[in-house]
Amino acid sequence: VLVVFLFQAICLLLDSTFNFLDSTIRYTTSSTRYFNTAQTIACRVKVEEALEDFFETYTQVRENPRHAKISNTDAIHLNTFLLLILRLVHVTITAAETSKTPGARLDAGTDSTTNVQKSKKLFNWKKPFYDLAAYIGIRPSSGKLVRAVKTSLSVLISAVVVFTYRKRLQAYGWVYWAPMTTALVSDSSEGGTLRLSFQRLMAVLLGSTYAYVSVLVTQNHVGVGICICLFVGLMGYLKTDPRKEYFASVCAQSASIITFLSNHQGQMGESNKAVLARTSLTFLGIFIHVLISNILLPITARALIKKKVCLMIKNVSGSLQASCDDFCTFIGPSVTPQPNTSSKQASFNLMKTLGETESIADSFPALLDEAINEPNFWKRPFVQVKDRYNDVAKSLRRISANIRFVHRCTTI
């Protein structure tokens, strides 16, 4: 029954398309007849309604359990036929709307094209700087600028605090440890949210404390090695849980690095002082970084969600354009390619872009849960918009799967 509805939707789509074409051809065949703009617009609206009905019916057919039982060959034949229908509709509508005859144009003003042709190209003073940055390999952005300011400010505050209170912190000859830790953490924590910042702080505190206690209790190189190996193995087991992976990695790295770098000339007695000093300085450096990054333009999960949604939409749009160009070349080789099309396709990796989009969509539920658990600094709670973001991610995931299928059909 759904197949019958699908063919009815196809017939309705073709009828509305040719009716729209007929409404634009009347004026071109007989220049003395009056051109009915309202009728042409009404026919165009019917085409949009027929397209919407076609896609809804096709979605019902795909979601039908019987559709999953058909073979891949039959599925390819069916989808190729439907793509041919859509190609015919697209070409017909494009021919009707882009015709140079006055009857095919729905806009009232005809002087706009003349003005566009006479307009002079303005000089863009930003382009030489962007070209120079691209030649050097630098891609400036507001995010990188904010990150650089945060890192510089964190290192400066960390150095000032350590040099001011170096006697109370018992820093001795390791005053450089806190600024260095701040710089390393700032470099390795780009895009971290509030939850990750808290996990990093707790992981460094736990790993550093374990390292200090291990050196203080064992007083033996072999014992310290065994304790650290057991601790790293335990953290490796915790890394199997995706929710605890980041915490376990930072915790294991903090414990192992502080322990093995704190041994001064192989003397365990002097290493106790080094472990205590470096533990306090490491914790101070991490704490200053977390404090600055969360006070000065903090990165929240909601901001990351908006950024990733925009990235997914951009990737899907580029992939859809590339896939449509490939399909048009596959269906009609006589179509003349636009200039610079081959260079754009060569620089655009379709499968890599789709894989990046799908990986973002797969990690979206965890990011949505993290945004709900964050403190609410906005007027609208995130619970009200969570379902919308989730629907957008699912829709983009389905579009990505359809693009993969079209690409597979054109590369047979």
Q: Which features would summarize this protein structure in a list?
A:
single chain; 412 residues; mainly alpha; 16 helices; 0% strand; elongated; IVT-Associated; signal
What does this structure look like?
The structure is a single chain. Helices cover 76% and strands 0% of the residues. Helix 7 (177-188) crosses helix 11 and helix 12 (301-331) packs antiparallel against helix 15 (364-373). It has helices spanning 2-29, 37-63, 72-97, 111-118, 126-136, 142-164, 177-188, 194-218, 221-238, 245-261, 268-295, 301-331, 341-347, 350-362, 364-373, 383-410. The protein has three domains: 2-106; 142-295; 301-410, no CATH class. The protein has 412 residues and is mostly helical. One of its GO terms (cellular component) is membrane.
Topology (elements, then pairings):
Layout: H1 2-29, H2 37-63, H3 72-97, H4 111-118, H5 126-136, H6 142-164, H7 177-188, H8 194-218, H9 221-238, H10 245-261, H11 268-295, H12 301-331, H13 341-347, H14 350-362, H15 364-373, H16 383-410
Shape: elongated
**Radius of gyration, CA atoms, in whole angstroms:** 31 Å
Strand count, sense and barrel status of the largest sheet are: none
Low-pLDDT runs of 5+ residues are 27-33, 102-116, 339-344
Number of strands: 0
- The ordered H/E elements are HHHHHHHHHHHHHHHH
Q: What distance separates the N and C termini? A: 31 Å
Please bin the fraction of helical residues.
Answer: over 70%
Provide the residue-averaged pLDDT: 75
Structural class category: mainly alpha
> How much of the residues is beta strand, in percent?
under 5%
Q: How many structural domains does the protein architecture include?
A: 3
Number of helical stretches of at least 4 residues: 16
Subcellular location: Membrane
GO biological process, one term: malate transport
Keywords: Membrane, Signal, Transmembrane, Transmembrane helix
InterPro entries: ALMT, IVT-Associated
